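so my prof wants the structure for this chain in the tokens format not the other one, which i didnt know existed until like an hour ago. anyway here's the sequence
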Amino acid sequence: MRVVSGDKKGLSLKAVPGTTTRPTTDKVKEAIFNMIGPYFDGGIGLDLFGGSGGLGIEALSRGLQSMIFVDRDGKAIRTIKENLNFCKLTDRAEVYRNDAERALKAIEKRELQFDLIILDPPYKAQKLLHLMEEIQKRHLLKEEGIIMAEHENNVELPEVIGKLHCVKKEVYGLTVISIYKHG
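here's what i got, hopefully its the right format
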């Protein structure tokens, strides 16, 4: 697992020890960023299921100004911090150990809005539809912002969720990438 492109291209990233997380492959990571970027001119991101931090670090490497990483697993939090430190990105990131829904409530209090929200929850416990409804209810996505949802191919997300519209959907084996924007 490595950073695919940008100013940190080629740096290796550690995976979370054990089998509780499923790292996004470099091939799928490249495809995701070709769909949503591939590069950014600043902006703020939220990686709500940070895992190893690979997707959020990729966004930072490709020009996103800052990223908030959230994960409820202590091993994942340690791995994210190690990877950010190794990539010299700690000054552009915040890392929190929290449940996704509680994190959204806490972020709302800070009155933050995001250019990019990454939703890559564990395949076994996906609540993507509910999370996207919560993101809208809490006004966490900028008007021109993007939500990237990674999910299993047996999960069918609606084309329209509130004011969000699916603008792209690609299948990579068992993995589906769905991109949502305000309609």
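also thought this was worth mentioning. The helical segments are 26-36, 54-61, 74-86, 100-109, 128-137.
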